[in-house]
From TrEMBL:
Gene Ontology MF, one: L-threonylcarbamoyladenylate synthase
Domain YrdC-like: 1-128
PANTHER family: SUA5 (PTHR17490), THREONYLCARBAMOYL-AMP SYNTHASE (PTHR17490:SF10)
Subcellular location: Cell membrane; Cytoplasm; Mitochondrion
Lineage: Eukaryota, Metazoa, Chordata, Craniata, Vertebrata
Source organism per UniProt: Motacilla alba (White wagtail)
Protein's UniProt keywords contain Cell membrane: yes
Protein name: Threonylcarbamoyl-AMP synthase
Amino acid sequence: RYCRVNVPDELLRDLLPGPVTLVLERSEELNKDLNPFTSLVGVRIPDHPFMRDLARACPGPLALTSANVSCQGSTLTVLEFQDLWPQLSLVVDGGPIGDSQSPECRLGSTVVDLSVSGKFSIIRPGCALTPTVEILKKKYGLVPESS
């Protein structure tokens, strides 16, 4: 509804829900104030029960960002970003979103641009790079955009 999907539904099911953000061409239905200077939008369905319940309860898309200062590691618990609380209207604790002892969990999602048919481009390697690239190349025959 909010983006133009030009990949098979099965590819979406292989990557989502999970730690992958798909960048696709935005649709006219998406609020123009979200990513106003680009024709693309990142779409993610996290594999976290609380966030999925929250998304189901909302009538439209959720515009979210990581709860950390840019260029710092991803936070995994609400206490890890308590220095930002005074600047926020609401903080909801849905529990940890990863193993705080795992460096991979702090890499954030793998961000992959799928807006060009038949190709992909990795925008951010993130925590799921290897399995994502394997699925895109081996299972669906997509090629890196630079090829």
